[in-house]
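ugh ok fine here u go
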Amino acid sequence: MNVTAAPRLDTAIRTHLVHCLRADGFAGSGSKYRRVVDGWVQVVSVQGARGGGSFAINLAVQPLAVPDFLGNPPDPKKITEELCELRRRLSETNSDQWWKHDGTEDGMNAAALAAAVVYVNVGRPLLARVSGPNAPLNTVTAEEFDRGSFDFSGFGSTKVRMALTLARFRRTQGRANDSVAFARIGLAHMGSAVALRRELEQLAVAS
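structure:
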């Protein structure tokens, strides 16, 4: 007796979305794919809904020169989006986007194809914008960051964590004064994020 295998979302994702990711130089398997561009690791991952029936796509970037979210050296072959300091969802709008399917093979293929189109039209330009020497993450000044007059293409975290990341990053770039300025912004907005205080205080001292 022949039993037809149930349709699988990962097969549809692999057929449509992963094809685009590999064309862009991403490597990985399953739901997580990574590439390194100009000293940054970029992560694309698929997040299925707990109850099934839909999925979202997460994008994340992490400078390899600074620690990840847990304070460890980032591993470009294993890092997940949760460990990256700057994250966002792939979306055609400013709202959260989930691709729904009805559990059938046709439904999963249609959803995966639609997600792949959004990656090509939206995700690919977003990731290109946050890479390279002229990317906003490399050029933003402390004054612009403090005023909120910057555009990281939706990638971010809390203001304190972003200030810490930028302070660390500027220090590795040999831009000590800029590092101090970002660290002082982080301290000014510390609030309850006391776990980060010690490193911010160290970075806030001009060397």
